[in-house]
Amino acid sequence: MQELNSGKGQPGLKIDRLMLKKYDRPGPRYTSYPTVPEWSGEFTTEDYLGALDGASSATDPLSMYVHIPFCKSRCYYCGCNTCIVRGDDKPGRYIDALAREIKMIGGRLGRRNNLIQLHWGGGTPTYLDEKQIEQLFEAIIGNFTLEDDAEVAIEVDPRVTSIPQLELLRRLGFNRISLGVQDLTPQVQKAIGRDQTLEQTEELFDHSRRLGFGGINIDLIYGLPLQTVRDFSATVDHVVRMGADRVAVYSYAHLPNLKAHQRKIKDTDLPGPEQKFELFATAVERFLTAGYIQIGMDHFARPDDELAQALDNGTLHRNFMGYTTKRTGDMLGVGMSAIGNISGAFAQNLSGLDSYMNTIGEGKPAIYRGYQLSGDDHIRQAVIISIMCNFVLKFDDLKKAFGIDYFGYFRQEDEELEVFIGDGLMKRTGNGIEVCPKGRIFVRNIAMVFDAYLRKRRDGDKPLFSRTI
User: Structural domain boundaries of the chain?
Assistant: First the structure.
C-alpha cells in the first residue's frame, strides 16, 4: 500500500491494490471533448473555411499551435506525430508550407489577428536552424500580432538545442520554454532510445533562466521500461534542485499497435500497474514536499507560478497545448497533424508530411477530419474541463452558462458518481461536487462518467486510449 503526502499537513493518503485494479482502465486525457476518435472525414474543407469565417467576427484574441514534426532520432516511447529526415530539403519546404497556411488562415480571419498564446511543439522545434526559426517566426508576425502579455512558448530537446538558438528565441520574444527530460537514468534512456545527460539538461536549463525565460517546464514520464522507484526518485530530486517552475509527469502510453516504433520496447521491461503507481506516487510526494502545487492530474507548479495562481482562483484551462492560464475562444492549429478549435468545431490537418505540404502547395487547407460540437457536447465539455482543471463542478455555473439544472440533466451520471464518493475520491458540497486529494489520481475516471461517447463503446472494442494509471 502506497501513501501520498497531500503537501498541506494532512496525513498520508492510502491507495490499496484493489482500488488501483478497480480504476486502472483505458481512458482519455481530455485535451478535447469529444475526443479525437469521434471525429470524422465528414467534416470538410468547406466546413473548416466556414468556421474560420465565423471566427472572423469575434474580437477576443486567439491561440496558435504550430507543429514542427522533425526529430534527429525517434525515441521509442514517443506518441507524437514526428518525422526523421536526413540530407534533404524537407524542413525548408515545410517552413514554406507553414508560411502559406498561416497567410491563408490570416486572410480568412481578416482583422481578427491578435494572438494571446503562441506555442511551437513537435517533434523538436529546435531541429530547425536559426535561419529557419527566424523565417517561421516572421511568417507568423507578418500575419498576426502578438499581444503585449502573450505567452510565447516552445518545446526543446536539450540534446539538440544550442545556446545560440536559445538566445535567438529570446530575442524574438519567446518567454516560456519546456525541456524534454523523461528520465535521467542511463539504463532507462538506453531502453527508450534517448541518450541525455544531466549535464546537458542542467546547462540548457540554467542558460534559459539567465536569458529570462519564465515558467520553465520539465517533462517527465513514468511507466517507462526498467524504471525503478529509487532511480526515478533521483530524477525527480534533480529536477527539484534545478528549480523548475513547472513539471509535467506523464504516464507512458504503451500502444504498439498504433505506434510501430514502440515495439522496440519489451513488454517484460515495463512496470506493472502497482509499480507504475508507486513511481507516480513517489513523484507526487516529492514534488508536494518540495512545495509544488499539484495542477490537474499530472502537473506541478511552484506557488508563485501562473498555473498555481490560476488553480487557486479557478481560472485554469485545458486544451491541446495542455494546462494553460490563457483561455481563448478559438485556437488555430498550423502544420502537419495540427489541431484547431474554431467556432465550436475541431479541425485536424493531414498527418503525412508530403500530403500536408502538397495540399497546402495547391492553395487548399490540409484538413482531413474534424467535428462540429452539438449543444450537449458544449455542456459536457464544460463539465469535463472544470473537473479536470479545477477539481470542482459548481452547479450554479452550469445554470448560468447553459440554463440547465444539474440533477435534471445529469441524473444518471450523478448516480454513477456514488462509487467515487464511497471510495473517498470525491465529495458533494453545498452546490456542487469536488474531487478529493486522493481522487486527483483518478480524475480521468471521474471525468469519464460525463463522456456520452464512451457509453456507446462496447467492452470488446479495441482500446483507443492509454490506461488511467
Answer: 2-26+375-456, 43-333
- CB-based contact 328:116 (threshold 8 Å): yes
Task: Return the minimum-mean-pLDDT range out of 46-55, 88-97, 129-138, 257-266.
Answer: 257-266
What cell does 400 get?
448560468
Q: What are phi and psi of 453, to 5 degrees?
A: -80, -30
What whole-number distance in Å separates Cα of residue 29 and Cα of residue 385? Answer: 11
Tell me the residue type at 150.
A
Q: Are 163 and 209 in contact (CB under 8 A)?
A: no
Superfamily assignment of 43-333 in CATH?
A: tm_1862 like domain (3.80.30.20)
| Closest alpha carbon to 239 in 261, 224, 218 | 218
269/88: higher pLDDT? 269
Rounded distance, CA 154 to CA 215, Å? 11
Residue showing cell 475562444 = 329
Measure the CA–CA gap between 19 and 283, rounded to whole angstroms. 19
CATH number for the region 2-26+375-456 comes to: 1.10.10.920
- Please report, for residues 5, 61, 80, 104, the alpha-carbon distance to residue 255 in angstroms, rounded to integers and kept in the order given: 31, 37, 12, 35
Q: Is 81 helix (H, G, I), strand (E, B) or coil?
A: coil
Is-contact 153 192, C-beta < 8 A? no
| 107: number of Cβ within 10 Å | 11
Instruction: Report how far residue 364's alpha carbon sits from residue 341's, in angstroms, rounded to the nearest whole number.
Output: 19
Q: What is the model's pLDDT at position 11?
A: 36
